[in-house]
Amino acid sequence: MRELQAPKGVSEYFPPRSQYFEFVRETLIESAKISGYQLMELPVFEDTELFIRGVGESTDVVSKEMYTFEDRGGRSITLRPEGTAGVMRSVIEHNLDKLTLPLKVWYSGAYFRAERPQAGRYRQFYQVGIEAIGLNDPEIDFEVIAVADRAFKKLGLKSYRLDITSLGDAKSRASHRKDLVAYISKLNLDEATVKKAGLNPLRLFDDKRPEVQEAMAKAPLLLDYLSEESRVNFQRVQELLQDAKIEFTINPRMVRGLDYYTGTTFEFVSDKLGAQSGIGGGGRYDGLMAELGGNDLSGIGFGLGVDRILLACEAEGIFDSSVNNPQLDLFIIALTAEEKGYVSNLVNELRNSGISCDMAYGDRALKGAMKSADKSGAKFSAVIGSDEIKSGSVAIKNMDSGESKEVRINSLATEFKSN
Ligand code: HAM
């Protein structure tokens, strides 16, 4: 029989590494929650049209990387390549913009892009994202960037940088586009590139080919075309970042991979990851909701790549020191088969009281059971035989120091709760 394998290029997490994945994801989520963001849980697949209209046809994501298929009812369905379009669809469909604005939501889950797999680039990957909808205000731009930065600092990451730019408002972009299109029309480009530039001329800044990069070296930059309002907003975002001591670099050539961006846009980049160094990015998307048929509300958000952030943490050696592995409090061993039922009940009751504990299963001799206690990583272990049951008292052994102390069996729960 053929050996079954996971599909090519997907990321998977299993013990012991999965605890670090969980730690990273929960740290990112926590930073969103303490900033007032609420959970949004959305479908993994949506109508294909949502992403074509929302993410944009000029993007690699839509033109090359979507997992699109026909469902049994003949509808075109796509596995979500990103989270923002789905959030907007749901906000419009359920009139969530009638609630207090800004509407602030977070989400977390798997996303799908048929990219060429390599280290840090997967076909199924994980994001934690936030969106703040209904307010065009530099304070909220700052808040969104700070939520990500706080999470990275909480994780203990040091070798990362923040690039920011502004794509301006519609007025700024229209006057820049005119000059950029005129500049591009004078270049000697192949047909596919001309077509791409026709959909979104900014894409050419993102072209990795040296000849295109060279040709674009003197292209007009959007930052020089900002309207007065956009310029003042962008200036304010920078001041707020400076006040918060969040370091950043202005990168006027930064192009995000999705078409909906306007105003403040940003990317976090790790120095430790090689080619796939983007650990998170986002920005404002002021026309998106209207484009998808909703009210003309502004929004800003980010998507953080949990897989890459985990890789960055590992590359920086963070888990050697700062993570407290989720630890069991107690591991209990029955001395003989006679006490198994008693221990099983005791473990169940301790768990009911919220104490994390486990026991040695199977018919292993004491030595083997002690090995299981070691491997479990529990803080304490205890062996219960007929003597302990009779006396109602047991020695609990600190697995680090080797020291033991006597505790009444019926006080075990209180003992561990007070620890
Ligand atoms: P994005 O820049 O396309 O933005 O993705 C965000 C992050 O997801 C990237 O910085 C990267 O860490 C991770 N990522 C993307 N593709 C892959 C992949 N193939 N393998 C591993 N990690 C990957 C968005 O998705 C926007 N929805 C963010 C946003 C929210 N903008 C406004 N609101």
From TrEMBL:
<protein>
    <recommendedName>
        <fullName>histidine--tRNA ligase</fullName>
        <ecNumber>6.1.1.21</ecNumber>
    </recommendedName>
</protein>
<dbReference type="GO" id="GO:0005737">
    <property type="term" value="C:cytoplasm"/>
</dbReference>
<dbReference type="InterPro" id="IPR004516">
    <property type="entry name" value="HisRS/HisZ"/>
</dbReference>
<keyword id="KW-0547">Nucleotide-binding</keyword>
<keyword id="KW-0648">Protein biosynthesis</keyword>
<dbReference type="InterPro" id="IPR036621">
    <property type="entry name" value="Anticodon-bd_dom_sf"/>
</dbReference>
<dbReference type="Pfam" id="PF03129">
    <property type="entry name" value="HGTP_anticodon"/>
</dbReference>
<dbReference type="Pfam" id="PF13393">
    <property type="entry name" value="tRNA-synt_His"/>
</dbReference>
<dbReference type="GO" id="GO:0004821">
    <property type="term" value="F:histidine-tRNA ligase activity"/>
</dbReference>
<dbReference type="InterPro" id="IPR033656">
    <property type="entry name" value="HisRS_anticodon"/>
</dbReference>
<dbReference type="GO" id="GO:0005524">
    <property type="term" value="F:ATP binding"/>
</dbReference>
<dbReference type="GO" id="GO:0006427">
    <property type="term" value="P:histidyl-tRNA aminoacylation"/>
</dbReference>
<dbReference type="InterPro" id="IPR004154">
    <property type="entry name" value="Anticodon-bd"/>
</dbReference>
<feature type="domain" description="Aminoacyl-transfer RNA synthetases class-II family profile">
    <location>
        <begin position="17"/>
        <end position="326"/>
    </location>
</feature>
<dbReference type="InterPro" id="IPR006195">
    <property type="entry name" value="aa-tRNA-synth_II"/>
</dbReference>
<dbReference type="InterPro" id="IPR041715">
    <property type="entry name" value="HisRS-like_core"/>
</dbReference>
<keyword id="KW-0436">Ligase</keyword>
<comment type="similarity">
    <text>Belongs to the class-II aminoacyl-tRNA synthetase family.</text>
</comment>
<keyword id="KW-0030">Aminoacyl-tRNA synthetase</keyword>
<keyword id="KW-0067">ATP-binding</keyword>
<dbReference type="InterPro" id="IPR045864">
    <property type="entry name" value="aa-tRNA-synth_II/BPL/LPL"/>
</dbReference>
<dbReference type="InterPro" id="IPR015807">
    <property type="entry name" value="His-tRNA-ligase"/>
</dbReference>
